[in-house]
UniProtKB/TrEMBL annotation:
Record protein name field: Protein GrpE
Native species: Bifidobacterium tissieri
Keywords: Chaperone, Cytoplasm, Stress response
Compositionally biased spans, kind Basic and acidic residues: 32-44
Gene Ontology CC terms: cytoplasm
Biased composition (Low complexity): 22-31, 45-55
Length: 221
């Protein structure tokens, strides 16, 4: 067995400086990986920016196409077509205005009728006591010819404005238009009827201004 020579063994080993400068050493691999990763990052960022730019360009193109579609339809019309389109627009606006005017006219006509009726009711209500006195005088035949003429003119004037006088002895009792101030039982009566009219009733159309105040005959039972 040969003797171990320490100096020969140490001389055959590579020193630390030679290992550090050797390109094939193990320490060069991590540096290369980091360099490759750094070079890949700018490439990915450029690709993302390009994709965003392409998307914005597509959206702007769609908006421009939508905005230009209406204008292109008008531009494609001939002068005659444009004139017809304008005429149709004017006709539609005229019909709309006409419908609004008709609605306004109908509404004002109804309001006018309501105001007119209220005025007639106010005048009639104010004259009711005088009309009741005329009826009492007429009933007792204490009216001369001149007074009868005046009473007749008053009645015709109210008829002209749609005022109707009601309440007659012998008619059936109707609680919707008669105000019974007295009920008198009668063994011969088979239903409630008006026996006497104390004050006549007045109405305009279906609206009762004042119910007729009457004495009612009722069946005995």
């Amino acid at each position: 067995m040969s003797d171990f020579n320490k100096d020969d063994y140490l001389n055959d080993m590579e020193d630390a400086e030679s290992l550090k400068n050797d390109p094939a050493s193990a320490g060069s691999a991590p540096a290369d990986d980091a360099k490759n990763a750094d070079s890949a990052k700018p490439a990915d960022a450029d690709a993302s920016a390009q994709a965003a730019t392409d998307a914005d360009t597509a959206d702007n193109a769609d908006k421009s196409a939508d905005a230009g579609s209406d204008a292109s339809d008008t531009d494609e019309l001939t002068p005659l077509g444009k004139a017809k389109k304008e005429a149709a627009d004017y006709l539609e606006a005229l019909q709309r205005e006409r419908a609004e005017f008709i609605n306004y006219r109908n509404r004002t006509a109804k309001e006018k009728d309501v105001f007119r009726q209220h005025g007639i009711i106010d005048v009639l209500t104010a004259l009711l006591p005088a009309l009741d006195d005329i009826d009492r005088i007429r009933e007792h035949s204490e009216m001369d010819d001149s007074f009868k003429a005046v009473a007749t003119k008053i009645d015709k004037a109210f008829e002209k404005f749609g005022v109707e006088k009601f309440g007659v002895k012998g008619e059936d009792f109707d609680p919707t238009k008669h105000d019974a101030i007295l009920h008198r039982p009668d063994p011969t009566a088979d239903k409630e009827t008006v026996d006497a009219v104390v004050e006549a009733g007045y109405r305009i159309g279906d609206r009762v201004i004042r119910a007729a105040r009457v004495v009612v005959v009722s069946p005995q039972n």
